[in-house]
Amino acid sequence: MGVDPGNAHPAGAEKPDIPAISGIQVLDRAVYILSIIAARPHNLSEVCDETGLPRATAHRISVALEKHRLIERQADGQWTAGPALAELAPRTSPRLEEAAEHLLPKLVEQTKESVQVYQLSGFERLCVANAEPATGLRDTVPRNTRMTLNAGSAARILVAWAPVSLQQAVLPTAAYSAAELERVRQTQISESVAERDASLASASVPIFDSTGTMVAALSVSGPVARMGDSPAEKFGDALRQTAKEIEIHL
Q: Quick check: pTM over 0.70?
């Protein structure tokens, strides 16, 4: 039986079909390769066998995924899931949820405003915990709400510590710059005023786990009329103190 040198499949053998989900061929191929490598390690020949792609095409896409740290090469030459997958996934943990549930109401009492905890979820931010004042006009963000990374103080925090590849994808359409993200990393606080919504303002600080990894953003938000022109200055001390108390539990 002959062998097709382009993809190492036996001549006449049925080749696997990569689902055309998005209509963008290279994206569908990349996601399919990522999914099979995430399931178990593969070498290039195995990727070709499972995808039916020519060797050169499979290699080019796999190397691109490797450069984005979505997959990485092991000592034996096989590709396995890379660190960027974990970095892009929400890091919600029972400890974070329990600490937030216990400590956010106290922060509401101090600030008299709505407070939230956000985590990075792909190219969005996900509200994983919140607390609201009992009365008055407020910025209500229900738990499990997904929001853009292009604007807002929490977005700045999450993107500032995100992989470079994510930063490069977000910054061209963001309301902030790379220079501002550097300031956020240095000061460990961010703010936005009338940005995501003309009537709202917010301030946010990072939450770090015991390894020093940024795992979430703690935010306070409310009407511009109450938050003022510099919500970071107004609420920074309360945010930092609450973030430190949450970190003790992580």
A: no
